[in-house]
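## Example record

The block below lists the input lines for one assembly entry, exactly as stored, with component labels intact.
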Amino acid sequence: MEAVRMMLAELGYDMAHYHQESFNFAALEEDDDFEIPESDETVERTVFRVELAKSGQVLECGPDMTILNAARAAGLRLPSSCARGLRGSCKSRMVSGTVDMKHGGGIRQREVDQGQILLCCSRPTSDVVIDR
Ligand code: FES
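Predicted structure tokens for the full assembly:
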């Protein structure tokens, strides 16, 4: 980004019209959403199976955890950026299953209708298979 900004300035681009965005991943990792919920021995918890079809990896994901955070907790790095359902970086095709997805505009209804989900804001409501 720095190189592009310098090239544009050298070429005489009106930098008043230059915009860029970046994400602070350190802040995201400190986010409350990333915390793994502590287990409560008195409450029986449902854990869903999330299978990544292409890699063959299987995750366990509680209904109060996003699929992206379950993958992170398992040490997997899936494509993502904002972790807020805004950019669509984690968009993936759901082969089977159901999720509760509360996104921030990073996916279009027609994509949802075609079976796409955003992993960062989708919580499983059944066992799920993802095309990843
Ligand atoms: S990581 Fe940004 S939409 Fe999922």
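Residues 23-35+45-130 form a domain with the Ubiquitin-like (UB roll) fold (CATH 3.10.20.30). The chain has a mean pLDDT of 86.
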